[in-house]
Amino acid sequence: QLQLAESGGGLVQPGGSLRLSCTASGFYAIGWFRQAPGQEREGVSCISVSGRTNYADSVKGRFTISRDNARNTVYLQMNSLKPEDTAVYYCAASGWHGDCSRRETSYTNWGQGTQVTVSS
């Protein structure tokens, strides 16, 4: 069974950086999502099996998604963090081999989530 393990969340000051990691027990398209209290879950970024990427407008130019296929790990480098980036971040996996999607329904397996808090 596919398992996902996330790490890298924490507390950071505005303007700071964090790198999230998502390790899967296999080779999949990966999406990163986030959910702030009282808000719907939002698709932040995704990366396909071939390495094509997609970003939400709210994070373009600040977040970078990448993958290390030898380690079955996908990274989300988050720079210039803002208080509005505060949320629980989840990674999710899809067996789809085309372009990735930021829609929740495209993913079948989810990690447990990691808290990111941006505050001074």
Overview of this structure, please?
- By secondary structure, the chain is mostly beta strands.
- It contains no helices and eleven strands.
- It has strands spanning 4-7, 10-12, 18-24, 29-35, 42-47, 53-55, 63-68, 73-78, 87-94, 109-110, 114-118.
- The strands form two sheets. Strands 2, 4, 5, 6, 9, 10 and 11 form a seven-stranded mixed β-sheet that branches. A four-stranded antiparallel β-sheet has the order 1-3-8-7, with no helix packed on it.
- Strand 5 and strand 6 (53-55) form a beta hairpin.
- It starts with a strand and ends with a strand.
- The model has no long low-confidence stretch (mean pLDDT 95).
Short description, anyone?
This protein is mainly beta and 120 residues long. The chain is built from no helices and 11 strands.
Query: What ranges have pLDDT less than 50 throughout 5 or more consecutive residues?
Result: none
Average pLDDT, all residues? 95
Helix content: under 10%
Gap between N and C termini, in Å? 40 Å
- Summed up, the helix count is 0
Q: How does the helix and strand content classify structurally?
A: mainly beta
Order of helices and strands: EEEEEEEEEEE
Main beta sheet: strand number and arrangement? 7 strands, mixed
Task: Give the overall form.
Answer: globular
* Radius of gyration, taken over Cα atoms and rounded to an integer in Å: 13 Å
Strand element count = 11
- How much strand content do the residues show? over 45%
